[in-house]
Amino acid sequence: MKLTKRLMAYLLALSLVLGLSAAAFAETDITTGSPWLASSVQGAVKEDTPTSLKDDFYLYVNKDSLLSYEIEPGYSSAGVIPQRNIDNDRDISALFTDSEPESSDAKLAKDMYDLFLDWDSRNAQGVQPLKEIADAVEKLSSIEEMSEYYATVPYELQAILPFGFAPIVDYNDSSAYIMAVGSGALLLDDSAEYGELSEFGALMKEVWSEFTLYILGRLGYSEEEAARKLSNCFELETALAPYILTSEEYNEPDILDKINNVVSLAEFEKMQGNVPILQVLDLCGYERKENLILLEPAWLEAFKGIYDDEHLTLLKDYVIVHSALGFGEALDRECFVKYMESTNVLSGAEGLLEDEQYAAQYAMNTMYWQVSRLYCERYFTPQDKQNVSDIIHKVLNAYAEMLSGEDFISEQTKQKAIEKLDNMVINVLYPDDWTEYLSDDLSFASASEGGTLHEALLALTRSETKKSAEEFSEPVDRYKWSGLLPTTVNAFYDPTANSVNMLAAFCRGELYNADMPLEEQYAKIGSVVAHEISHSFDGIGSQFDKDGNYSEWWTEEDRAAFDAKIQKIADYADTIYCWDGTHINGSIITGEACADMGAMACMLHIAKSIEGFDYDLFFRSFAELWSYLRSYNGFLSRLKDEHPPEFYRVNATVQQFEEFYDCYGVEEGDGMYLAPEKRIAVW
């Protein structure tokens, strides 16, 4: 949670990255993993790579698929879930090419699509929208003028802010919103990178340094001026990084204790000093409530110390650089192509998609609810919604039975856990009523009417800011959809709403259809639903009660016992090497690994009551679900993520359960064997 505008790029001056290149990474021997091959990395599996069901279940099930996959141009991975994403992109593109829009909402989405493709207009405008922002910042001659700029210039016309804010559900009172304030964007994304660069951090430096210099050059800065701005921006961030929580810290179970710093409005006015945070919130129309959450108090104190005339040049260069990077996708064609080529290097993708595919993605990412409605009305029926809902309720009932039989937690904690299940909000596929998700006041000129993409984005920002400020003053509706969209191939659990959200785009193709064998349904859609529900009892989710309030409802003894199990997950993951010198970071994957294990326990609990259940089909289908081929750079990025690599989340999950050993006769000495005393039975 960084609470900043979308981070488009990362920085270092070119002089700091000479000698680091993607070619150097290719020298790594990716076939030295232990105890399993990192077979989801492109190139790790060969025709002659030996397989054994009892030594590496993931590889045994998926070898042929991994060898057959070809990563499509413009994408960085292939596999069951990646293919669902690719097919989903095509489904969304078809919304704009197969028929003409009928409703006003559909027309707005189509207009944004057309404006993205209006290269004549975009090329004629060039980098002028960005240059106007940079020129306005360059004219600021004092810190007072900078504060005045951010307090008075319309929000949609401003440069990227040097701090972040967002209205969130109050952790302590889930019926109300509270404003959270935190640090601005870091060009290397993770503050830990400013101490010791990771391999992926070094790659980001190289890629985004080149892109940043290009954009600044297009704005009219000389090579020397551009390099100086990059260096100044990095100097400012280096000074602030020690006071900003790392990505690893944000994934630790005690993160809420660190960030839930509630301060009164009066206290915050004193704490912000001359930094115009409250003034920007006033400008955006947000009500001044009694309290705020200051995510990183040490950051604000450090930032206040450099928000002065002495550091004005650094501050100006920071906001110009971040604004330049943030505009890369929406400028002329040359900028857009260079931006996409840069992101491709980081993800490991090669080649570009068709313009129409990018336009559809852009329309979805900006006009998200309008496109979501079109998508769901075309591709889903009420019966689909009912089928998935039935599976979710079956999983909820299974968890209640499992919790009732747990012996490591007290009756008091068990009852509260079951109450949490009983009060869980279930969002299936798409909202029942679309009207409250759409903006009545949003309008902009289409391409045929002489409108431009830039003008449409300004109108969209104005509308979204106004709607956000209005909602901020209202009570929280736990039943309202928020977060990821129905068009996203994903699912999630929201602890502040105590809701499980199974999104429409995930429930298609190889991931789910009503004609699948029961065992395959349970291994795929069932395990994903159970995974998300398990998050309500993981290191973070277990700190929220049935109403979504941050509350300790566990006994002290129960919490200690649970924490010991979580630590066991981290310790085990730390022993898994993807290749020599690169191991899985156990401290950041505990939540996801815990949810994987909880999901497997839940589905196996259900299987016990089904006569003739085909465990072989179930386990193989689970391994197929995570059949994934990633580029090397894409895999490096994955190692920074809280989700474990796919080969790990299959092998390390199934080896925890006796049903797997019984099904395949895995014994001591086999690569898939884990001694009973070392197994991590979280639930």
Q: What's the N-to-C terminus distance?
A: 28 Å
Quantity of strands, as a count: 11
- Helicity, as a percent range: 40-55%
> DSSP helix count?
28
Computed Rg: 25 Å
Low-confidence stretches: 1-25
Main β-sheet, spatial strand arrangement: 2-3-5-4
Structural class: alpha+beta
Inertia-based shape = globular
Give the amount of beta strand, in percent.
5-15%
Summed over residues and divided by their number, the pLDDT gives a mean of 92
Please give the largest β-sheet. Answer: 4 strands, mixed
Explain the overall architecture.
By secondary structure, the chain is an alpha+beta fold. It is 51% helix and 7% strand. It has 28 helices and eleven strands. The chain has helices at 22-25, 57-68, 80-97, 104-117, 119-125, 128-138, 143-152, 199-218, 223-240, 247-250, 255-259, 265-272, 277-284, 297-306, 312-326, 333-347, 355-366, 368-379, 382-404, 411-422, 453-472, 518-534, 556-573, 586-607, 615-625, 632-638, 646-654, 658-664; strands spanning 77-79, 163-170, 173-183, 262-264, 291-294, 425-429, 491-494, 499-503, 577-579, 582-583, 628-630. The strands form four sheets. A four-stranded mixed beta sheet has the order 2-3-5-4. A hairpin with a 2-residue loop joins β9 and β10. α8 crosses α9.
